[in-house]
Design brief:
By secondary structure, this protein is α/β, with parallel strands linked by helices. It has a five-stranded parallel β-sheet with strand order 1-2-3-4-5. The mean pLDDT is about 95.
């Protein structure tokens, strides 16, 4: 049988419309039934990951089974720590999207969180696609040349290691945490 590895939901600047509430509620119900982790599209500038975490919690989803996505778009350590201290994993998942925040600043944020002991609550990615009608190749080449599938292994990991991330930290963020999140809980 085919099963979902994760359930993806989104809330954004448009607020919590009836449709958003319906989809978020359905995702929570699916999680309760299957144990599959929920990952979110968030807008860190608005701290809406806190709302996502609270809503899903009220609907039976333990914070440990929530990944607050796009958390790497902020350097607000208090916000990120709050999400993780309440049990969620943060998706530092937009490396290469330097038109939003530079990779150097994203790396610095991850390194600071590692220093504070949060390796068990961070996953890394670049939210990249091979093709997108929203961000065509010419735009990417001009505006976000590092936004591609090889950015993490070729650029980000060397920067993290040079900044003090240990091999254990890298293994935790790239292997151990994803494995934990992809195993359904009953």
């Amino acid at each position: 049988p085919v099963r979902a590895g994760m359930i993806k939901v989104s809330t954004g600047p448009g607020g919590w419309s009836p449709d958003v509430v319906r989809v978020m509620s359905a995702a929570a119900a699916a999680h309760v039934r299957t144990g599959v982790t929920i990952t979110t599209h968030s807008v860190p500038a608005t701290h809406n990951g806190l709302e996502q975490q609270a809503f899903l919690g009220r609907h039976g989803v333990r914070a440990e089974r929530i990944v607050i996505g796009h958390s790497g778009d902020t350097e607000d350590l208090d916000y990120l720590r709050w999400l993780m201290d309440n049990g969620s994993t943060i998706g530092m998942d937009r490396f290469g999207m330097e038109h939003i925040l530079s990779d150097d600043r994203r790396v610095a944020t991850v390194l600071r969180l590692l220093e504070l002991g949060y390796a068990e609550r961070i996953v890394l990615s670049q939210d990249a696609a091979i093709d997108s009608h929203v961000t065509p190749p010419a735009w990417r080449a001009r505006e976000a040349p590092n936004w591609h599938m090889l950015n993490i292994p070729q650029r980000i990991l060397p920067l993290l290691r040079a900044g003090g991330a240990s091999e254990a930290d890298v293994e935790q963020m790239l292997v151990t945490n994803p494995r934990r999140l992809l195993e359904p809980m009953r």
